[in-house]
Structures are given as structure tokens and as C-alpha cells.
Design brief:
By secondary structure, the chain is mostly helical. The protein has helices at residues 8-19, 21-37, 45-74, 89-107, 113-135. It is elongated.
């Protein structure tokens, strides 16, 4: 291998990392919004606990999505609709889907900016999933 050359597989990992910047930043802004909401009108206790649960579940889902995509791409992805080789991505798939839906459902109990950011997080996570799937075809 020559120095200064990059394999084509490296570009897909860099592209997927760039795609995850948006959902991760929306998640961080949602956490910051919850912290700042304490200085304004405080949320009722039940709503605050559901929002904290949504943020915790969204954080877990984000990490699982990153690990799932890295494992899926490392196992060969799914070129031309074929299945990828076995890897860590298979057992993580159902857990990823359920944590994503749980975080999306719990985010509906939020209020104001935190709810909007968590719903934006859900939309951007779906966009990232589809974009990586399309990106790996090239």
C-alpha cells in the first residue's frame, strides 16, 4: 500500500460520519434546551421525566445507529439489494428500531423547543439511514 492513498472504503465512513453531525447536534441542542428550560417556566414533573426518558433513549438510539451503520458497512453493506455478511449489525437491528420508535414516541410528550428538536432528530436519523444506504451504492 502506498502512503498518501486512501482506500475507497474510507470515504464511505467519512461520509457517514459527516451525515451524523446533524442528528447529533440536534440531540445536543435538545439536551441544552431541557437544561435551559429550568430557568424559565419549569415543566410538570411527569412531562420532565418523559422528556428525560426521550433524551436518554434518543442518545442510546444515536449510538446504536452509529455502531449499526459501521458494522453494516464493514460487513459489506447491501450492494444491489443483496444482504450483507453476518456481523454485529444483525442483533443490533431490532434494538435500534425499538429505541428509535420509543424516543420518537416519548418526544411527543415534550414541550416547546425540546419537542421540536427531538422530532427534528427523528427526521434527521431517518434521513441519515436512507442517505447512507444510497451512498454505499456508489
Amino acid at each position: 500500500m502506498q502512503f498518501g492513498t486512501t482506500s475507497p472504503d474510507t470515504y464511505i465512513y467519512i461520509g457517514s460520519a459527516i451525515l451524523f453531525v446533524l442528528p447529533c447536534s440536534l440531540f445536543c441542542f435538545a439536551c441544552k434546551g431541557l437544561i435551559q428550560s429550568k430557568t424559565r417556566t419549569p415543566l410538570p414533573a411527569w412531562r420532565k421525566y418523559l422528556v428525560i426518558g426521550a433524551l436518554a433513549t434518543a442518545g442510546i438510539a444515536t449510538v446504536l445507529h452509529i455502531v449499526w451503520n459501521a458494522s453494516w458497512l464493514y460487513s459489506g453493506g447491501s450492494p444491489h439489494g443483496m444482504g450483507a455478511a453476518p456481523g454485529m449489525w444483525r442483533p443490533l437491528g431490532p434494538v435500534l428500531v425499538w429505541t428509535f420508535f420509543a424516543a420518537t414516541g416519548l418526544s411527543l410528550f415534550g414541550k416547546g423547543k425540546v419537542r421540536a428538536l427531538l422530532i427534528g432528530w427523528s427526521v434527521s436519523m431517518y434521513f441519515v439511514f436512507e442517505a447512507i444506504y444510497i451512498l454505499q451504492f456508489d
